[in-house]
Amino acid sequence: PLPFEIPHAGGDGDIALSGALRRPTPDLPPPPRRVLPLPLLLQPPAAEAAADRRRRRRLRRTPRRLHDCPVGVLVDFFLLAVGDVEEQTWDEVVLGCETAVLVAFWAPWCGPCRLMHPIIADLAKAYAGRLRCLRVNTDENQEVASRYGIRSIPTILIFKDGERKETVIGAIADTALAATVDRFL
Prior knowledge:
By secondary structure, the protein is α/β, with parallel strands linked by helices. It has helices at residues 46-61, 71-81, 90-95, 111-126, 142-147, 174-182, and strands spanning 15-17, 20-22, 83-84, 100-106, 131-137, 155-160, 163-169. The chain has a domain at 71-182: Glutaredoxin, CATH 3.40.30.10. The chain is built from six helices and seven strands; from the N terminus they run ββααβαβαβαββα. The longest helix has 16 residues, at 46-61. Pfam families: Thioredoxin (PF00085).
């Protein structure tokens, strides 16, 4: 008998392996590995995949909350709620205003500035009559930008009674900007 065979344990040809009795099995090949295809939802046809890529690219270029609007509509929506101010009208429109004034310094080529446009437009609507929202294109009005030390955009200045009260640099969340504005109303 072989060293792992126990002739009297359980009958003919039983083998003891690690304390248990097992019948020897004939040499069988391992079961074939089955490769299952991915679900059809994960493998869209080529046309759907291309449309999906285009849709994702378009969503990256537009603000998340208004992603269904065409870009032209976003610009018009912003212009209705927020006015432009230039060097010639700065003193009259910003410093001479009786209500609080939020001034956004921006440029057309600035992506974070474009993300801030709908947030500022929402603030202009929410605080209508108590807050005036304006914007300054830093490419066209460099003198105003340099007078207030604007070195990066977007930069938001909040004025009250003709004096600068707060400076916010960079794109921030709408709730944070609203909390900043609330302190001066």
